[in-house]
Amino acid sequence: VAGADPLDLVKARQAGMMMSGALMGGIKGAIDRGDDVKTQAFAARTLAGWARAIPGMFPDGSNVGETHALPAVWSDRAGFKAKAEAYAAAATKLGAAAAASDKAAFATAFGEVRAACGACHDGYKKPDEHH
């Protein structure tokens, strides 16, 4: 990311956030259908990997263009990193439940992932009229 064009970083992190949303939608569909949650292990691992990458996608100087990030991303780095770490921990738990084919634990962990996403968005993302 060092030396990357700040506008490219904005596009990359927006694509990552859209990917995260798509994976979350697919996971919710699998839960709602009663699918074998083991089929969602890759999606859960992908969410955990993305969560761990998030802080690095917001280096100083990347608050440019059509970003949806609030200034708090840069002014409260410790808080922002803590929210990303909570997301990663919840997604890792989701992956473990998927690998174990534990539908109940998977559904609970999915709720924790959603809560972690929302907690970060509440403090670090501009309100979105689309949600």
Would you kindly provide a written description of the structure presented here, covering whatever features stand out?
The chain has 131 residues and is mainly alpha-helical. It is built from five helices and no strands. Helix 1 runs antiparallel to helix 2 (41-53), helix 2 (41-53) runs antiparallel to helix 4 (77-99) and helix 4 (77-99) runs antiparallel to helix 5 (103-124).
Protein topology:
Elements: H1 6-33, H2 41-53, H3 72-75, H4 77-99, H5 103-124
Helix pairs in contact: 1-2, 1-5, 2-4, 4-5
Low-confidence stretches: none
Radius of gyration: 15 Å
- The total strand number stands at 0
Instruction: Tell me what portion of residues adopts beta-strand conformation.
Output: under 5%
Order of helices and strands: HHHHH
The averaged pLDDT comes out at: 94
Helix count, DSSP H or I runs of 4 or more residues? 5
Large-scale geometry: elongated
Through-space gap between termini: 29 Å
Helix percent band: 55-70%
Determine the structural class based on helices, strands and strand pairing.
mainly alpha
**Largest sheet entry:** none
Question: Short summary of the structure?
Answer:
The protein is mainly α and 131 residues long.
Salient structural properties:
131 residues, mainly alpha, 69% helix, 0% strand, elongated
